[in-house]
Amino acid sequence: RQHNTPGEWRSLVNPEHRDELDRVLRQHLHDSSHSFEAEYQMWHRDGHWVWIQCRGRVVQRDVHGRALRMVGTRMDISARKQAEADIAHLAFYDGLTNLPNRRLLLERLAHAVARSERGGYHGAVIFVDLDNFKSLNDTMGHDMGDQLLGLVARRLTQVTREVDTVARLGGDEFVILLDDLGASPEEAGNNAEFVCRKVLAALNAGYALGAYELRSTPSIGVVMFGGGEHTVNDLLRQADMAMYEAKAAGRNTFRFFDPRMQEALDEIAMLETDLRHALARKELLLHYQPIVDNDGRLSGVEALMRWRHPQRGLVFPGTFITQAEKSGIIVEFGEWALETACEQLVQWSARRDTAHLTIAVNVSARQFRQPEFTQRILQIIERTGANPRRLKLELTESMLLTDVEDLIHKMSMLKTHGVGFSLDDFGTGYSSLSYLKKLPIDQLKIDRSFVQDMLLTPHASSIVRTIVNLAQSMGLQVVAEGVETAEQWAALKKIGCGNFQGYLFARPGTIGDLRHWFAAVDDTASSVRSSHLSLVNPVP
Ligand code: C2E
Ligand code: MG
Ligand code: MG
Q: What pLDDT is attached to residue 264?
């Protein structure tokens, strides 16, 4: 279409694009070595914007060099522009909920952090994770899951301001970016908390999905920014960390990030590196805790792993076993413990006062699940020459959750060689009694939490009684763990429990610490000897 005057043509250009167009034109008129090119929107007479790409150049100038005539082309590039916008949308928005995705969130977060630093105000990143979404998705179907996510997205948008960003990271994870929440950290914190409460209330309301009325709750983690340097990835990780704290606190609640959470994580990361070298650097050791009979006489010990860390000193299993299990290194640790315990058994077998003692070794599920577990144990026994009848393996109830057939098979194999089995921390797991009957175990160990409560709550005391009765009816031994007082010991004996372990008798210690126990075994012999000595060497 022809435009007669430049003014008429220019008036149809989107005002937002005019400055840029003018700049390009001016530059071309000044230096017309190349053609110019510009993209801008023009108003169509049908009443909408059209994207135009314009290319042209000056073809005639007067003697002073002023432009007289231009030629050029104009092209409708609306379709291309739309495609570009679609691609940008796909790249920056989540297809299911139409919320900004992780990439756009990171971009906006980076801007918000930079702005907050300049402007001296504070903002917040709120991490929202739906509780039990996975099981809902599995039981109700993915369609339902998707619908729920859509509704959650809408509610999150409703409880936030226009300037805030509600993004979906993927799965059931959402992030809310609250931009300017105030100049003081307290004010900003209060505002963030207010939003958290609104989110909790909004997501706790029931969801109508087809014929179903569904409930879903969120766990929420918050981290504040402003007044310091933050990287966007750190912020997201910290909000995530805080969210896990909310989960640990029982879900359907929110937690603010606390630097101590970071310290705990750093510590785990550090442990992980050191843990890999612990065996090679000979930092592992076993402590032994006595297990006594009704008369308080030593019948055996439990081997408990310790890690002598060069900086931290003695580290207890509570700090490193979980980590060792996650990384898989527990398999090597466990074999080392077995081997060390077997070597100890061999030493004890040579002495009359210790030859009867047993050693119980804890075995982690991951170790037991190794296909070659049985062979490895038998090899260790053979290599060391230990008597398998003096060796007990302590398993936990959680092992009964998967592949019980494999478990029974391995246990039976070892059993035929004389190895004994003990079910540790009994009562805290999921033991089904029907499994219990199928397993070739010799012993139940009552978890110390029951022993500690048995004189305080009727509930705990009836659990202890039930376990002892059950064990007796099945011909199993019972060991009470964590016996700390004489009263507990007396009560346990009265019920019929025959074996005891706990601080009342001894704390776990080195072989050296056990020495006086062996003497106690030979009590009569030593008293005879000492009376004999007193005859030879009468006290003056
Ligand atoms: P566990 O097998 O139930 O071991 C008993 C735990 O109770 C030990 O903690 C012991 O020190 C503690 N204990 C004993 N008597 C008392 C008492 O009277 N009062 C109190 N409060 N506690 C008592 P420890 O040594 O910290 O070991 C913790 C857990 O780590 C063990 O629980 C066991 O599950 C695991 N573990 C220890 N050594 C190994 C190992 O070599 N391999 C594997 N896989 N796990 C191990
Ligand atoms: Mg144990
Ligand atoms: Mg135990």
A: 79
The CA 512 to ligand 2 mean position distance, Å, reads 21
Nearest-atom number in ligand 1 for the CA of 321 is: 45
Residue 496 CA, ligand 1 centroid: distance in Å: 24
Whether residue 156 contacts residue 199, with contact meaning beta carbons closer than 8 Å, is answered with: yes
Atom number in ligand 1 closest to CA 425 = 3
Q: Which residues neighbour 355 within 8 Å (Cβ) at sequence distance 6 or greater?
A: 348, 349
SS3 at position 45: coil
Ordered structural domains, the chain, with CATH: 8-83 (3.30.450.20), 93-257 (3.30.70.270), 285-531 (3.20.20.450)
Task: Report the phi/psi class of residue 57: left, alpha or beta, with left for phi > 0 and alpha for psi in -120 to 50.
Answer: beta
In terms of C-beta density within 10 A (0-12 exposed, 13-18 middle, 19 or more buried), how is residue 235 classed?
A: buried
Coil, helix or strand for 244? helix
Are 400 and 368 in contact, with CB atoms under 8 Å apart?
no
Beta-bridge partners for 176: 126, 166
Q: What are phi and psi of 393, to 5 degrees?
A: -105, 130
| The model scores a pTM over 0.70 | no
At 278-297, the pLDDT tens digits run: 999 999 999 999 999 999 99
Nearest to 319 by CA among 364, 271, 283: 271
Residue range 359-408, pLDDT digits in tens: 999 999 999 999 999 999 999 999 999 999 999 999 987 777 678 889 99
401 versus 189: the higher-pLDDT residue is: 189
